[in-house]
Structures are given as C-alpha cells and as structure tokens.
Amino acid sequence: MPELPEVETVARTLLPHVQGCVITGARLLRDSSLHPLSLRPEDLQGCVITGVGRRGKLLLLELDAAQAVNEGVRGATGLRLAVHLRMTGRLMTHEAHAEPGPHTRCVFALQSAGGEARCLFFDDVRAFGVLLAGTPQTMQRWDFWRELGPEPLELTEAAFSARLDGKNSAIKAVLLDQKVLAGVGNIYADESLFAAGIDPRRKAASLSTAQRGRLLRSLKDVLLLSISQCGSSIRDYRDANGNVGAFQNCFAVYGRGGQACRACGRSLEKCKVAGRATVYCPHCQK
Question: Which residues are in the FPG-type domain (predicted)?
Fold first, then answer.
C-alpha cells in the first residue's frame, strides 16, 4: 500500500497535470470504488481543480465549485475529492480520447485553462481503492478521516512522546496505527525503528524520552529521504508520470530478513508484529 512518501510524490507529480483544469464530465465504471458518503463523480462537473495535496495516505484534489453545473454542489466551500489508493490505485492523465483500461474504475474529463482537453483515470487492479467527494462536513462523517492522527512530519518531540504515553502495544504496532500517526506503514515503520536503534517489539510506553525523540527524528529523516527519491516501488506503485520510486534501493531492513545488517554485518531476523512481517537487527535494535 502506498504510504506517506508515495502519496506525497503522486500529489506533487499530478499537480502540474491538473491544476486549473475544469472537470467537464465524469464516468464511474465500478460502483464499489465510490464511498457511500460521496457525491457522484458527475456531480463535480464544472468544478475547477485548484490544488492537489495529501493527508496521511489519502490523496486530495481541492475543488472550486463556484461554477459547478449541479445546483446542489455549486458554491460549496471546501469541496474536495479524496482518493485512497490502497494497494494498487493510480491516478494518471491521458489524451482526451484515451480508452479506459480493464482496471479503470473512474474517468474524469478535463479541460485546461488553455482549452486543452484531457482525461484523468483512476485505475485500480485490486479494486480496494476508494473515492470520496464531499464538503468538510461530509468528510467529518467518514470515520477514517475523522480519526486520522497528526502528520508525523509536523509533530514536535513533546507531542509525539505524549502520543506514546500509556501505549502498551509494541512500538511498531503504534506507528502503524493511523489514529496515532497518519501515513506510516510497514516500510517506514521498519526503516525508522532500525535507524533509531529500537526493537520493534518494545512496548511503546517503555521508551525513554531520549528514545522517543530519536525515533521521531529518524522517522522524519526516513520519510523525507524517501520523498526525495519519489518513494518506494515494490510492486505496483507509480507516480502520476508513470515513473517508479527509488527508495527501495536504500532499504536497511525492510524485505531483507536473513541478509546481513548493513550496520553490524550480523543476520537480520524476521518476526510478526501486529500481524505484519517485520525485519530487524537483534544486535543494533534494543
């Protein structure tokens, strides 16, 4: 599943393709790809895409509804289209008359400020992804959105430490909990815990103040490094230009169970934490 760096990369690479474009039409090709709370894609006709951002693992297209064709949508403030890519979701623009592929779940027809027609495809091989278009009030009715924790790149050490207080679950399980932190998944939990020298099985509450600060700094460093390399491409992930990321070439532990630790040369071990495959160095991580 794309994590924070991958979704951030998609947002950055999609922005120049769609910013300022008017949605001139839309077709939903798979009903289950639309969240029950969402407006229908065709209700967004006439909206202008003013920006592309991210919240946790969610991609966000910001919309100006001043000229929306649908009277119930026209003039709505804070309207956005949230896209949860899940495992295999992709958003890419194509020529105006491009035909949807076998895994295209939704198509948006666009017109640029210069009058150029194009289309935006939401493709999703596994069909686990979801679209939700709505106002801030609608978004607050979505449990996943309402319960998202803070962005790790914006957290202070004191605020991060406070979120670990009283947590007796393994620290990796806590990092994966989207209600505690938004956007961290298996890859970046493993990599940041290695960088911080912390055993992923340690109880979160047992970490000292120094360890908590070191972990947050390591997490930020790992996330920012991955963003600078356009994320990690393990299987399906591509950015909005169709390019793969490069951070997988820098993995210290993720997916390297049984191989030599890059720091001490000893064998990396595998275990399960919170039901997720986990790789760590028993010598370097305490």
Answer: 252-286
- For 163, residues 6+ apart whose C-beta sits below 8 A from its C-beta are 149, 150, 155, 174, 180, 181
Respond yes or no: is residue 286 known to be catalytic. Answer: no
* Residue-wise pLDDT tens digits, 82-126: 999 999 999 999 999 999 999 999 999 999 999 999 999 999 999
Query: How far is it between the farthest Cα atoms of the chain?
Result: 65
CA distance 226 to 239: 13
Active-site pick, 167, 201, 217, 276 = 276
Of the candidates 93, 125, 10, the one whose C-alpha atom is nearest the C-alpha of residue 57 is 10
CA distance 15 to 10: 8
Is residue 3 among the annotated active site residues? yes
With 0-12 / 13-18 / 19 or more C-beta atoms within 10 angstroms meaning exposed / middle / buried, residue 184 is buried
For residues 156 and 112, the answer to whether their CB atoms sit within 8 Å is: no
The number of residues making up the chain comes to: 286
Give catalytic status of residue 2 as yes or no: yes
| Domains of the chain, each with CATH number or no CATH | 4-147 (3.20.190.10), 152-280 (1.10.8.50)
Tens digits of per-residue pLDDT, 135-150? Answer: 999 999 999 999 999 9
Q: Which residues touch 35 (CB under 8 Å, ≥6 apart)?
A: 130, 131, 132, 142
Full-model pTM? 0.96
**Catalytic pick from 2, 5, 41, 152?**
2
Give me the phi and psi of 39, to 5 degrees please.
-65, 155
